[in-house]
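Changelog note: in this version the structure field was regenerated for every chain. One regenerated record is shown below for reference.
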Amino acid sequence: MKKELLMGTALVSTLGAASVAEAVTMSMSGNHTTGIEFESLTAGTDLRSQINDNNFSLSLSETTDGGITISSSMAIVNEVSSGTGTDMDAGFSLAFPSGAKLDVINAGNAADSHDISVPASAGEEGITVTTTNNAPTGLNFMTASTVYGVELHSADDFIVDGLKMSFSVSTDDNADNAATYGVDGHYAIGGTYVTDAGDSAITVGFGITQTEGAKTGTDPSNDEGGVHVGLSAVTGDLTVAVGFADGDSIEDTATTEVDGEVTKIGAKYVSGDFTFNVGYTSGEAQDSATFGTPGTTDDSYEKTSASISYAVAAGVTANLGFSDVDSAAEGVNDATDGSAWYIGAAMSF
């Protein structure tokens, strides 16, 4: 028995030493946001609700003797969300000494990686429009991909000073796309170009993506894909940005094809501990009730928003936001659109 105990102790000690020597570097980040929203809908209904958004993530990384940094991440989600895969789908990233980076497994879409961030309200207010309205609201509405993909990011100053490029591709997920559309693969290219124009720092972002997919016996009239372009100018404490996207997407749980476009305009101004945001979004689309047939009736979405944020302390921000939404589905005004106020605070680490 004494011999077995000694062997067990040696084994535990060895494993313990190995685990310490081989431990990767870990960092934590997250946020807790909570507040109250007040909605006034076109139909005459007034609503109020508490808004919560909580996130906690772990980032893991280590560098090889050859200078290649291997990294990944994971998110801790509520028990209710466990098993859904939400926020727990990160692959691996390999960062090379040259400055290039390769994302492997669920790498994403290169066009999505380079859409310009356009300022809008920093509050958590939101108006839920009718589900039949498929007008796009984001520049990345057509950037699908499968988890079986890679994305290669160039180093800074690729070909010319200030240019950074990304290229991505994904393959068939081998799913049986029977009743609903499924993505079989994609390819995409995106880029960000940064330069100076006098006292302003100018950033241009662009992307092109094309997706292939189908459901058994029925192909879409247009596969998901499209283009986007955006420009941001920073002059001192003022940021002004504009973006435009045009393309096709598959919506409504992969049963409706949409031909849409969206324009976003916004500005942000920082004055001491205060930040002022304003934004405007306009989307239009034609969606079809019959998959494989182009749409003919118009959906529309317009949103104007503004907010005031105050830095209460390090990592703590108070937000007051307002949004007004005017939407229509199949050419008929949406009774669930309207306006909303939000007051709350965010804590981040």
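Spot check on this record: The domain at 29-348 is CATH 2.40.160.10 (Porin). The longest helix spans residues 2-21.
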